[in-house]
Every structure is written in C-alpha cells, then in structure tokens.
User: Fold these one by one.
Assistant:
Number 1:
Amino acid sequence: MLTPVHWRVLLPLIEGLHSQSVVRDDLAQKLFPEIQPMDFQTAVRLALGRVATDDVETSWSDALVVSQGDIRPYTLTTSEGMMLERRQMFLDLPPAPVFCAYTGLGG
C-alpha cells in the first residue's frame, strides 16, 4: 500500500473490501449530491493517470522533496504495465554499515 494516509486510518477501509456492500437507499446521494460514483476500473485508471502526470494532491514523496530541497529523491517510470519507483541517496558512510542496514529492511 502506498498512500499518504496513516495506516491506522487506511486499514479498516482496506479490510472493508473483503465484505460485499449492498446499498439499499439513496441517502448518500441526498447528503452528497456533488459526488458522482464511478466504477473501480475507472477510478484506478484516473489515479494512475494522475501519478503518471505528477498531478497527485499529496504524497509521502512531497515531504521528501521538501526536506531535501530541489533534489527529487525518486523517479517513477512505467514498464510492462508496472509502475517502478527508484530511489537514490548518497551517504558519507563506509559501505559495510549501509549494506547491513539495507539488507535488514523488510525482515
């Protein structure tokens, strides 16, 4: 999951996708008439299109760019239907501790 939303907020939303939801009234449309529902495929295409054109309202990468000035610490590319994120950081450290920290990521 890649999102600027904290995982504690996101997790119940993701877990809710396991359950079928059947709407039996139009209360939501009455309360939020300006919101037009769309199907999943359209929403995903729209979201990926915004990422591809760097038109995302907020993202974790925004914080990285601000903290590192004008240096963009990542690149996003698309290859064979996948989005690839590449990051690079130059460190003034000996290789051994950097390798140890890197290989320890993700368990």
Note: The radius of gyration is 19 Å.
Number 2:
Amino acid sequence: MPLSTLDNPLLIAYLLASCLLIPIIGNFWPEKVSFLPAMRYYAGNWATSQWLFRKDSGAEGKLDTAITKPARIVPEQLTPIYGRETTELLLAKGLAFRAMHSHGRALNGLLPRAVDDVEAYHVREAS
C-alpha cells in the first residue's frame, strides 16, 4: 500500500511523529531521547575480554574448586548436556560471533602477543 493512499489523519500524525519527529529531536537533543528511537548509531565501547587457560594445566577446572560462585564454569555446565566436543564447538561459535565485529577482530589479533602458542590454550569469552 503506497503512502499516498493514507487517509486516516491519526495514522498520518503517528507516522510523522515516530518516523520524523522523534529521530530529529533525538539527534538534536540526545539526552532527551534514547539512541534506539532516535535511530542514532551506537558508538559506545563494548567491553570485551578473553581468558586464556593452558590446556595441560587444569587451570580452568581450578576455578570450580577455588572460587565460591553461583554456578560452575560454562564448559562444565554444557558438557553433561552436549558432550565435550560439542561444548568446545559451541564456545568457539561465541568467539566467532565476536570476531565479526572490529573490537573482536582486534582482540583476536592480540592473542599471539599474549602467548607463544595460542593452540596450547583454551580461549574463553570473558565478561
């Protein structure tokens, strides 16, 4: 249905307000309108980090015994459901998703600077 066929004045007013007025107000006074309805680009920092656990040290498993927390580490939660191989695949998919964005690519590019052999470590998404 083309816009030229609109004949309801309330609908026209609603469309003008939501599609034109709110974005214009939000771009001139960003403190008054959130970036979502104002259709502004979110250029904030996305806090991200990665943890590296040496595969042969058992360091990742020590987190379960040495630290009091509400839940076990993610690989230990998922392994009974999916098995170890599928769990590692699922965790790698999260890292791959992060790598689609510039900050994730930069973080992955820094891994070889942090350790000599990245393949000797479990790379985990951290918060």
Note: Strands lie at 49-54, 121-126.
Number 3:
Amino acid sequence: MKIEEIFTSIQGEGAFCGYPTLFIRLSGCNLRCAYCDTPNAQIGGGREVDPLLVAEEVFRSGVTYVCVTGGEPLLQMHDLCALLPLLNDYGHSVSIETNGTIDFRPLQDLSTICMDVKCPSSGETSDLSLLTFIRDSDSVKFVIGTEEDICYAHEVMKNYLIKGVIFWSPVFGSDSHMIISYIMEQKLPVRFQLQLHKVIGVK
C-alpha cells in the first residue's frame, strides 16, 4: 500500500477527538479540494509498504486508536481489507476518514466511518447517496467556509436521514461565529467542532 506517513498525535476532530491516535496517512486522492491541508498526499507518491509491516508498526506503537486518512484511503480498498482485520484482532479501534465518493460498506465491519461531505467552497462534490449507509457508530463531517456552505449543509440534512453524529467544522481560519450562530438559531442537531490539533499547534 502507498503510505504518505505514519505518526502519532492527538486526534483533532471527529468522534475520537482528544484521544492519542496513530495516523496512517495513505497517498493519493481523487479530489482536489480548494482548502486541502495535506496537498502532498493528493499526488499518489508515497512509499510502498506491505500491509503486514504497517500492522507491525501499529502494534509496536502501543496506541489503541488508529485513524486511516489521506488522501483518499478507499482508493486502496484491497490493501485496507488486508490491514484492518489484523488491527481488529489486536484490539485496535479503527476509524477511516473518507471524502464520500467511494462506497465504504466493504469496510464497515472493520472500522467506523467519518464521511466528509464536500460543500461548495471545496470545489468538489461527494456522493450523497452514501449517507444512506451511515450507521449510528459512524459520523458525517461538513467543512464550512461560507454562507453558501452553511445553506448547503443544512439542505443535505433536510433531504437525508443521517444516523451518525454530524459535525460542522469551519475551514481553518474562517468565521466560526457565523456557523455557531446559524446552528443556534436553527437549533440544529449538530456538533460544532474546531480542528483541535491546529488550535494547539500539533501535527
């Protein structure tokens, strides 16, 4: 599998925010979001590593929580189908961050899913039909930078029954108060969340 980097840090977003987490960042992405904060992972370079060797590195870390991110991890579905059972067998809790363009169901028995629904300011779109398959244990994230993004996210929530936790996060450095005000005015069942790792200045 193509690995951009493997590192341990505090999880900065999503359902496991705040937990020490080992991140497996896979290389390659099928989107080019305007605000992407990991452009090096878009290209698809990285280093080739056997899934078994990746698993061994996770075991040595001693960290319980594992986040598979990218890039777009599901582009390497075959390798993930080999890696995740090994991590499960050793008691690791695994989450996958995906851009919502590839069917994640083959991996749902092996991990939780965080689907990042792309809003207009990203310049990209997600496959909203995948929201149907989000479970209570999964989550959905909207990264919001503009009023148009807010209206889009709200409209998606009106049109799709989303079972998992819904996060609204500002594009880093954008107007958080605009988002919070809207959530409060509309009494939306969403969890506002800043990217903790950027706030405290860690990777």
Note: The longest helix spans residues 77-89.
